[in-house]
Amino acid sequence: MENKNERFADLISAIRKTPKQPQKLSVMTYGVLFLLGLLIVSLLFFEGKTALKKPQNEKAEIVVKKDTIINVSITVFHPTTKECGKYPLLCADGYKININKPERVIGLSRDLLKQYSKTGIFDFGEAVYITIPNAPYLNNWYIIHTACANDIHNRVDILIFNPTVCDVRGCWAGTIRKHF
Fold it and tell me: Along the chain (180 residues), what's the average pLDDT of each consecutive run of 10 residues?
């Protein structure tokens, strides 16, 4: 019996003398620890303020913006010194007209522009759709780059580059549509 007890005692002392080897962690364990640490840091950093947090005592609303359509008078103009002043190729917003690359440019009366009127709803650089029932060949998307004179109200001026190619004159009733 002593032999067995001695062997058992020797085994226990050998185990106590042998330092324990640290257990190796798997890659998955490191990944889980990393994600937990990231979660804790993000909670401390953002202090509960997240974009997904719903404001208290408020119902979530879905806001649908509709197109704004305004009835206007529509005329045309040409980039000449007679019609536009000293610098006919320079627009009110600083845009330079390139005659070699015709673009669809319009000017609005100042009562329709935010820069000149408190009731204006359009900005320079916005794309709007012009509809003219009596001149359907001019129906298209245009970009607002210029403004009309001070005494003109509720009007759209369409820039026509070459009057010999497109000899359009007149004043039409039409609509301007701002798309959201």
Answer: 65 61 66 77 62 52 68 87 78 79 87 90 91 88 89 90 64 85
CB-based contact 114:122 (threshold 8 Å): yes
DSSP symbol at 11: H
The two tokens of residue 99 are 């005659």
Q: For the chain, what's the residue count?
A: 180
**Rounded distance between C-alpha atoms, residue 130 and residue 74, angstroms:** 9
What are the domain boundaries of the chain?
2-46, 68-178
φ, ψ of residue 142 in degrees (nearest 5): -130, 160
Which helix or strand (DSSP H or E) is residue 112 part of? none
pTM: 0.59
**68-178, CATH topology level:** Barwin-like endoglucanases (2.40.40)
